[in-house]
Amino acid sequence: MSFADNLPAIQQRISAACARAGRDPQFVMLLAVSKTCDAETVSEAVKCGQVFFGENKVQEAKAKIPLSPGKARWHFIGHLQSNKARDAVELFEMIQGVDSLNLAREISKRCEQAAKEMPVLLEVNAAGESSKFGYPPEKLLAELKELSSLPRLIVQGLMTIPPYATAPEKSRPYFRRLRELKSQCEEILGAPLPHLSMGMSGDFEIAIEEGATIVRIGTALFGPRKYRANPAPLDSEP
To answer: Which pTM value belongs to this model?
Structure first.
């Protein structure tokens, strides 16, 4: 099926999940994960009404974004290396996945140089998996005030990738933990954090039921990935 076929079906499932949770669908952002897709595919998605796109590799985005429609708005959702921070600041309007104070400082420095502000989400390794990036919850809470005080950085919430599971319901405890952690962060900061980025193609409905405001969906919209080499592990597939 094409993106044009898949998009309304996903939107309908988002609306149904919101209805179950007593939420308004307009407060859930559908982020189309366009990694491995070319600019022409992005253009077709924009024609269908999709606006927000997520990329997880700076080099791929650097080649793709200039060729894509100006209407498209881009989030970085992968693991960002400090030496790619300058390009990420130039290319994206949000960086999800800030997972260390050092990286946050580098992004802040690059934002100062570019005279812009950058909304960010802090990545949490909710399951404590050694194979994944992200803050342990306790360390995040300890460094939160310093993170939020960095100039030009706007902390807008949290994101997570739960352990890979074939049953979507198994992701629920990790999504619930992230929502609870966001509440703890709000108490520390004395201010609301608007976003929880959680849920991918296999479990986004559960994520919405647990409070997701951004769902990162790739294969359910674009179809199976077409990798040239070194495919990503299954548990990182949005």
So the answer is: 0.93
